[in-house]
Structures are given as C-alpha cells and as structure tokens.
UniProtKB/TrEMBL annotation:
Residues 72-235 form the CP-type G domain. InterPro entries: G_CP_dom, GTP-bd, GTP-bd_ribosome_bgen_YqeH, Mito_lipid_metab_GTPase, NOA1/YqeH-like_C, P-loop_NTPase. It comes from the Bacteria. This is Ribosome biogenesis GTPase YqeH. It comes from Suicoccus acidiformans. GO terms for molecular function: GTP binding. CDD domains: YqeH. SUPFAM superfamilies: P-loop containing nucleoside triphosphate hydrolases (SSF52540). Gene3D superfamilies: P-loop containing nucleotide triphosphate hydrolases.
Amino acid sequence: METGGIRLSDTNYQCIGCGVMIQTQTPEAKGYLPQSALNKGIERGEFYCQRCFRLRHYNELQDVELDEDDFLAQLDQISEDDAYVIHVLDVFDIEGSIISGLPRFIGQQPFAVAVNKVDLLPKSVKLPRLRHWVEQVLHRNGLKPEEVILVSASKGHHLENLTKVIEREVHKRNVYMVGVTNVGKSTLINRLIQHYGGDKEVITTSDTPGTTLDQIQIPLTDNYSLIDTPGLIRSNQMSYYLSREEMAQVLPRKQLKPRTFQLNPEQTLFLAGLARIDFLEGAKTAFTFYVSNDLYLHRTKLEQADTIYTKHVGDMLRPPGKPEALPELISRRIRLEADQDIAISGLGWFTVNQAVELDVWLPKGVGMSIRPAML
C-alpha cells in the first residue's frame, strides 16, 4: 500500500523507538529504513527507523521534519504532560524561527528560549545587548520565556547555560526541545548527548511502540527525559524553496562578514536570484548586508534590473539553479529608518545608515519583517 506517496508493505511496521510507521522509499522523510534493514527487522521481529538506529548505535540524532498540522499535534501532546519546553531559535533568522502561537499550544507549561548559532555573528557583538534585543523581539511576538539562553551548537559555546536549565528541570519533569527546521536543534541535542555521556546505555529510545509518535526520548534521570520533537516546516522561509545544494550557499556556516554598499537612488542590488532591493528615494546611503558569505550580491542600475534578472537568473544570479522552482518575485514598498533592519526569513538581513524608500522583491510567500536594528 502507499501512504502520502510513501510505499509501505501490506503489514505496517512501527518503529519501537519513536512510534513512527516504517517506510523504505524516502530517506529524508520520517520513518525511513532501507529495505535490507527492514528484511532483517522482519526476521528479528523488531524495527528501528534509521533515525532511532543512528541514535542508539552512533549517538547521532538526525533531523526530521513535520508539516504544520502534524507539528501542532505534537505541541498539543506536550500540553498534556508535566513538561518544561525549550524553544530553539536561529539567531540568523529570529523572526522566521519564532513559533508565535507557542503558549496557545503548550498550555501553561513554562518555557525558555535557546538562541542558537551566535557564533555566526561578528565578534564585536555584545551578548548581553543581544539577549536584551532578543527579549524585546519575543515580547513583540507574544512570547515571555522564563529565560533567554544564547548558545552555539556547532562550536559548543555557552552550553553550560543551557545544561543548567535542563538539569534544574529534568529532575521533576520532562524537558522538550521544539523548533522549526534549520535552527540547528538536532545539532544542539547531539552536543547535549556528548555532554551527558553519549553511551548507548544512557542514550536510548522508548520501549513502547507508538508512545512517542516521532519524538525521541533521551533519559537523563530515572523518571524523566530530554525529548526531541520533529522540526516544523515553514513555507515562509527561503529554504523551503531551495535544494540542499542551494541551501549550502544561503545558510551561513561561518562567521558573517558584513558587506556594505554605497548606493544612490535608482540603483538595485540583487541577493543572488532570491531577492532584489530597489533604492527609490533618499540621499546616498550605506546598505550593510548580513547574509551568508557565499551568497552573491550584484549591484546595477534600477532601469536595467528587470532585464538583468530575466537574462541572468539561474546562472550569474544563482541560486536558484532552477528558476522555475522559485515563486515569482513580488515587490513591497518599504520606508526603512536608520535604526531599523529588514530581515528576510531564511536569507539574512540588511540595514541602512539613514532613512530610505525601497521596493523589496521576494519570492511570493517568503516572510519579511522590519525590526529595530540588531547590531
């Protein structure tokens, strides 16, 4: 039989680690298990999906994605537990990674926010100021966490601030990690696994099929666990429309190097083929971009912008590699003040040194926000 485009056998096998249904066709989807491993599982009478298998045997947690309806169902389960929630954000995409309705779904459960990837920011950034800035953004989005913790999963920086919270809470309740895709949640949990010992006696999954429903339980005490939940897929993030190869150019892996362009009115700047900034009115202005160091930025005259985009999208203006996979660019008229950023979900942000009038072109559906300047 087939379910949602994923072929299952006539007997639906269930992972005894996370409760997901086993499938053998789509490696990046939940429940994947190679056919050869499924055959061995049939002989043994037990099944671990590849994600649980790698956790049990290699202490390595792989990310898995859920659409919004399934993700919200996961959050509803948390509201029924006596739980503490850690909402993981990406400092590179704060607004795009916020789950603004989180309190509605987790009920009265207390929560903290862990802001990941702070290692990507320039060294001049003062962490106390950044924490205060994040708190203000969260409050504007209706979130009032007990704590805001700044961390770097890839570098292991400031991990002790997060482990203090986990250890304080996990002796009295389960601790859930939630977040959208690409915030580095699984990398963060892998770092925590290393911190807590990383052997298969400690790092295990549930023994009761169907109880975790794609969640991964990492027991830290006799009674309570650190629980990973699948990431929420957001269609308003730029990465939703990109291939893995394209995402490697768009999502920064190294410390950001701000790039500044002195622009005059009637000039345009392309962020590869993914976004276009038309400078309409104002004096000569410095535009500073905080985007991946690998992302190509191209300046031209506004009168030539349409022709250049049509002619060069997919080659010089790349990504996208396949322009037809990207929604059409839609413009929005913006007045940006000197103390504000424009953040493009999943792409980065830019700021100016004085007030300007702009047309900002983005793929239809990709989110954008105007905010007080981060830096």
